Amino acid sequence: MVDYYPPWGFFFKVSFNDISSDTNDVRFQSVSGLSVEYDYESYKEGGENRFEHKLPVRSKYSDLVLKRGMLTNSKVIEWFLDAFNNRVFSPANVTVILMNEKSEPLRTWNVVHAIPKKWQVSDFNAGENGIVIETVELTYRYFTIQ
Fold first, then answer.
1. How many whole angstroms separate alpha carbon 27 and alpha carbon 15?
2. Percentage, residues of the chain above pLDDT 70
3. Are 111 and 140 in contact (CB under 8 A)?
4. 27-65: buried (b, 16+ CB within 10 Å) or exposed (e) per residue?
5. Residue 142 and residue 60: Cα distance in Å, rounded?
6. Which end of the chain offers a freer environment for a tag, N or C, measured as fewer CB atoms within 10 Å?
7. CA-CA distance, 111 to 121, in Å (whole number)?
8. Which residue from 111, 124, 129, 98 is spatially nearest to 28, judged by alpha carbons?
9. What is the pLDDT of residues 27-75, one digit of tens each?
10. Are 143 and 36 in contact (CB under 8 A)?
11. Measured distance CA(134)–CA(121) in Å, rounded
């Protein structure tokens, strides 16, 4: 019997399905925000003072935050800037794929109806020799897992 080992978190890719097919646009340094939780509503029952009933109301998804070295020619950033400069919000589906050492998908998150929320470029500092990091933040409706 072979023991199970959890997958490594450094081999993944992000795909903006309808926006870019460029291989540079799928390479990100980090992905965060793949989380979901429930909002609860408290219900107080008459005559019962020991506790409140907590009823699930709706799911709440975190914003998706992606970081990478800045690209000077990117369809994804053009999509972001179109939203910020022209107020054109074109929802897109985003796929995050965690892969094994053979480049085979282990788990896939399909992020539905994502729109730009924030774009940030790291500080420029003449006293350091680091690369410029761009951070993109997306808000979305929900995700499914395959």
1. 9
2. 99
3. yes
4. ebeebebbeeeeeeeeeeeeeeeeeeeeeeeeeebeebb
5. 8
6. N
7. 23
8. 98
9. 899 999 999 999 999 988 888 888 899 999 999 999 999 999 998 888 8
10. yes
11. 4
DSSP secondary structure code for residue 101 in this structure: T
CA distances from 109 to 35, 57, 105, 145 (A): 11, 23, 11, 5
d(CA 16, CA 142): 15
Name residue, tokens 């761009």: 134
Burial environment of residue 87 by CB neighbours within 10 A (0 to 12, 13 to 18, 19 or more):
exposed
- What domains can you pick out in the chain, each with its CATH number? 12-40+63-145 (2.30.110.20)
Interatomic CA distance for residues 141 and 60, integer angstroms:
9
141 in helix, strand or coil?
coil
User: Tokens 């003449």 appear where?
Assistant: 126
Query: How many CB atoms sit inside 10 A of residue 94's CB?
Result: 23
DSSP per-residue codes, 38-55: EEEEEEPPTT--S--EEE
